[in-house]
Specification:
- The protein is elongated, with a radius of gyration of 22 Å.
- Helix 4 links the parallel strand 3 and strand 4.
- With about 325 residues, it is of the alpha/beta class.
- The strands form two sheets. It has a seven-stranded parallel sheet with strand order 8-7-6-9-10-11-12, with helices on both faces. Strands 2-1-3-4-5-13 form a six-stranded mixed sheet, sandwiched between helices.
- It contains 15 helices and 13 strands.
Length: about 325
Amino acid sequence: MKPNILLAVSRGFYSAILSPIDLKRLHAMGNLSNTNPDDVIDKAFLLDHIGDADIVVSSWGTAPFDADVIAAAPRLKLLCHGAGSVRPVVTDALWERGVQVTSSAAAIAYGVAEFCLGLILTCSKRVPWFGKGTEAGFWAEPKSAFGGAFEIYQQRIGIIGAGHIGRQLTRLLQQFTCEVAIYDPYLSAEAAAAMGAVKVDTLEELFATSRAVSLNAPTNEGTRGMLRGEHFAALQPGSLFINTAGSIQIVENEFIAELRKGRFIACVDRCEHEPVELDHPYRTLPNVLLTPHIAGVIAENRFRIGTYVADEIEAHLAGKPLIHEVTKETLEKMA
């Protein structure tokens, strides 16, 4: 007998993450409900629809699976979160019931890693600044801007965080003649070497020795304020810093103070308040490239999320281990 699969995904995200190919896979695996999705997946929706669900697919905006919802879901065995962090939907009641949880955050990591690689290749050569310069009547002058352009050949590229994104970015950088260095307290030197990278023990060393540094550490209380002014002051002239990870990791006023010196450039895709204020220095500093939180998914890459959901349900039904299972213990280290 096929399991009952509740698609607790709002209308706004349904067609964005579930491609026709993966919907066909899900139809073959189970009896789907909410295929004509509601606009809002709130607690009332879950209480009304979860009673006979064996598997639930959640996404951005899905209400938390609290004690009331879990009590109304006696058959629930698997929750597949078709979004980034599972923190908005999981509760102690879910863990206590022994429901397995899986996340599609690794799918988003592909897009973020590709975005970071693109910034490393283009901003090291000052491409956005050359473009602005030619529009303003200049030619090759931007080559010397903000400490001078560089290329990654035989250079060290630093990555903060060896999670899904850090690992994907490390994999992509293997195609280039550069050294990849990773700072992550949970990563061993042996594991870093197996990834094709070297482990760096301190942030101070990473910043002082890398021409480009990409922040890919998770956003949680353990990473709050981990990057201070002295780290950015240690960057070599002309270096590149990329933030696609979050905002609380950086002591912002100290970061901005170093940016004002014009010694390096920064690509910022994540801000504490979005949209960022109109008078925020990120919008006006000439050595900052600000983008509106687009690194992960803005178009077709969202379909990877649905593919990961289908893959996990397939593994669950076949009695195989989940590929991206999240437990209460592992969640503590995640965003």
